[in-house]
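Protocol step 4 of 5: obtain the predicted structure for the target chain.
Materials: sequence only (see below). No template structures provided, no constraints applied. The aim of this step is simply to have a reference model before the mutagenesis design in step 5. Sequence pasted as it appears in the construct record:
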Amino acid sequence: MIDWTDVEIVLPHAKAIAFDGCHKIYVLMDNEQVAKMTTYGYGDDDGSYLLTADKLSKAEMLDTLERWYDDSCSLRFIHGVSTVAEGVDPNEGFTSLIEQGADWQDDDDDYDDPDHYGDEDEDDENDY
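Step 4 output (structure tokens):
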């Protein structure tokens, strides 16, 4: 189950939310980031979205983020994005709110389950 606490904490301060239509979901924390996403093409008629806080309530933003997350591919993540000071690595402006793979199951769990392997017949060595 996904923990939405970090998303809920930042949403009251968000200027917009953005989704590439596949797996990249962003909570934009300032107007400069909104402008950048616009120049990147978010919100064009290409399956991506850019929705500003002046058009949605915080509850609507959260509902939209949850829907996008549910509808996105398995590589999905949600990052908060803020503009950093000049000379600072722009990557410092990214905060993971829901990490990529947050809902992936541990692959090792399958190997602990004896039923994972099925019924293998050791005599059928050439059954490929």
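Step 4 remarks: Residues 109-117 have pLDDT under 50 and may be disordered. The chain has one domain: 5-117.
Proceed to step 5.
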